[in-house]
Amino acid sequence: MRYVALVALLTGGVVSHEPAPSLGLARLESADVVFTFRVADGYHVQANPAAAEFLVPTSLRLRTACGVKAGPPVYPAPLSFRLEGADQDLAVWNGRFQVAVPLRVGRFAPRGECLLHGTLAYQACDLQRCLAPTSLEVVLPIRIR
């Protein structure tokens, strides 16, 4: 299990993103898109909201592009996790988790292919330490009809 976590660290991070298929939307159409992430074995990330103010919550932000606007993300329910010796549970995600984001295409969005870019900011921890906060870029291909 430690080997898998080490490989994840050496190959770009503890969290990976499962690419979403291209999404087709018409002008003035709305849809929820689900982003799927995977946390390397042996690690967890802080949920949103985090259990304490000093912890870094995981957050997904999408940039507006091509007339497509993203609404506030809908985060999954957290899992409770207690570090050995701690007196309070943490709110975390581990393994596979999904974040839904509502999208709305504007009236004057240009027809054609578009890439919506975003960032998942997170802080990963294992049973002994937390890594420095980092981020993961995500891309969602959209076809505007």
Characterise the protein shown here:
This protein is mainly beta and about 140 residues long. The chain has a single domain (about 1-145), classed as Thiol:disulfide interchange protein DsbD, N-terminal domain (Immunoglobulin-like, Sandwich), CATH 2.60.40. The longest helix has 9 residues, at about 1-10. A hairpin with an 8-residue loop joins β7 (about 80) and β8 (about 90-95). The chain is built from one helix and twelve strands. The strands form three sheets. A four-stranded antiparallel beta sheet has the order 1-3-9-6, with no helix packed on it.
Short note summarizing the structure:
This protein has 145 residues and is mainly beta.
Distance between the termini: 45 Å
Strand order of the largest sheet: 1-3-9-6
CATH homologous superfamily annotation? Thiol:disulfide interchange protein DsbD, N-terminal domain
Note the main sheet: 4 strands, antiparallel
Q: Could you state the order of secondary-structure elements as H and E?
A: HEEEEEEEEEEEE
Q: What is the domain total for the residues?
A: 1
- CATH architecture descriptor name: Sandwich
Structural class: mainly beta
- Calculate Rg over CA atoms: 17 Å
Question: CATH topology, which one?
Answer: Immunoglobulin-like
User: What percent of residues are in strands?
Assistant: over 45%
Please tell me the overall pLDDT.
89
Shape: elongated
Number of helices: 1
Query: How much helix, percentage-wise, in residues?
Result: under 10%
At the first level of CATH, the class is Mainly Beta
Count the E strands.
12
